[in-house]
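Aim 2 progress update. The chain analyzed this quarter is reproduced below.
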Amino acid sequence: MNQEKLQAAVAAFLQKEKHNAAYYDENRNERKERKAYYQSFTKRKLLAMTEDEFLAYISKLRSMLI
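Predicted structure tokens:
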């Protein structure tokens, strides 16, 4: 791994994050909410879903930022 490239990429990201803190905070919060949402599902809850509940579950996965 090229350490110089890695350090440059990390520095560039940190600079972008610093200048656009609201954007990154919003995305971080959204990810925390999604994490809590998906971790709330148990095997029993997943198996008992209706079709509409399943579509809502999947639609949130499909619209995630990666």
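The helical segments are 3-19, 21-39, 43-47, 51-62. The mean pLDDT is 91. These observations will guide the mutagenesis experiments scheduled for the next reporting period.
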